[in-house]
Design goal:
It is built from six helices and ten strands; from the N terminus they run E-E-H-E-E-E-E-H-E-H-H-E-E-E-H-H. The protein is α+β, with helices and mostly antiparallel strands. Bound molecules: zinc ion.
Length: 205
Amino acid sequence: MKKRKEKITCFCENVIEAEFPEKVDLVVDPHVEEEILNGTFMAVKCPHCGKILKLEYPVRIIDRNRGIDIFLIPEYERAPYLTGKVVYNVGKRVVIGFPELLDKITVLRNGLDDRVVEIIKYHFMQKAGPELDIKIYFQNIENDKLVFHIHGLKEDEIGITHVSLSFYRRISETLEKDVDSEPYREILTPPYISANKIYIGGPTN
Ligand SMILES: [Zn+2]
């Protein structure tokens, strides 16, 4: 695991030195996948005050057995990355921020096509309207239905919605035909394949 050394100042002003991976191969380090799923990846506990600091640094995550190659851009670099002000040597996929990383890994673990999942999310975003800054994350498959969590419909509330696998398959079947028309093309242009490209932030951002 290639690592970077960082100095982090805690809220209590204690300075912590910690190492973070620059590149992870999940075949060699499968525990990283568990850490991503349970939210402890890149989390550091301050030895002075005990607070858990959740940090985000750029990292490339690969798994040659499953064809995973995801580059995490920290959330604070969303705008600089999307406007080309910061450039990384990324792989097949880019995600911005931990929630998108967790979502992408979960989609791939469930054997789903992340392109189809992003198109489904786009449909929800369109339904909600551009004035709502909603974020949609895939959770799991339950009784032939894809389960999604929707953030931002109501304050402090997570909406749950289900999509049938037959709807997923329908989108999957027409994907190649639709890929050249907007907004599909924008959403599906790699490496950042994401419905969040269409609705970036709300009207207040
Ligand atoms: Zn502290």
